[in-house]
Amino acid sequence: MNPVQPLKDYQVLITRGKGQADGLKESIEKNGGTPLLVPLLEFTLPDHMEDVQQRFEELLTYDWIILTSQNGVDFFFKLLGNPPLKLPKIAVIGSKTETALKRHGYKADFVPAQFVAERFVAEFNTLLYPGARVLLAKGNLARAVIAEAINEAGAICDEVIIYHTVLPRSSEKKLVQLIKNHEIDIMTFTSSSTVNHFLQIMKSHELDTYIDRIIIACIGPIAAKTAEKHGLSVDVCPDVYTTDAMVAELIRFILKRNKKGGTFK
């Protein structure tokens, strides 16, 4: 256990989907905080499986496959079943996505220096020749930035939805209760989807005034922009877009505020 407990007495909301919250939970506990697990994401198979099947039948006609998340990796190989002996080159966004790919026995051929779509495509497009074929396997809520930029650069990018992101029904009641009872000191968001689902619940239960004093931490600029666009005040957003960096930046924020004599309680 960490002898220094900067998150002691802080209850921290984790909104990540089931199976993806362990690392963040451990980091919060290590620093003395109490994690509150309320997954605001759940992942399901896509509605139109015939589209997936068609793309997979054409898989070897592509030069590159792009996988943008751990979920993308896991659903890709789940739907693919028995993969061919040799796949096209694989590009991923983020170290966690790269690690997930390794678990399936494959090595990423390209990982960007920064883990956001805009930086990814700026670097990735330098690897493409005119007419190169790219398959982008993604979730239904993913932005169109990557495909649009690749097509504008003269290559061909086809998109295939391999999973859907939905709000777990069981989480709504639990979140409302925690907020009404003022049991949350810090909220963490790891994607725009978690922000949007959170706001959906806040609006339907008219809870906006309950969250004014809660610290808000976002894993990166995209989630932060989504939060700010809807009126949330983001206190923490790390330069490196990982949960460890988010917790480290959160601790710095708290220590700095405490040093100035501020309080969150």
TrEMBL record:
Organism the protein comes from: Peribacillus castrilensis
A GO molecular-function annotation: uroporphyrinogen-III synthase activity
Catalytic activity, reaction form: hydroxymethylbilane = uroporphyrinogen III + H2O
Keyword tags: Lyase, Porphyrin biosynthesis
EC number(s) per entry: 4.2.1.75
Domain Tetrapyrrole biosynthesis uroporphyrinogen III synthase: 24-248
GO biological process entries: protoporphyrinogen IX biosynthetic process; uroporphyrinogen III biosynthetic process
Matching InterPro entries: 4pyrrol_syn_uPrphyn_synt_sf (IPR036108), 4pyrrol_synth_uPrphyn_synth (IPR003754), UROS/Hem4 (IPR039793)
Pathway listed: Porphyrin-containing compound metabolism; protoporphyrin-IX biosynthesis; coproporphyrinogen-III from 5-aminolevulinate: step 3/4
Record protein name field: Uroporphyrinogen-III synthase
PANTHER family named in the record: UROPORPHYRINOGEN-III SYNTHASE, CHLOROPLASTIC
Functional note: Catalyzes cyclization of the linear tetrapyrrole, hydroxymethylbilane, to the macrocyclic uroporphyrinogen III.
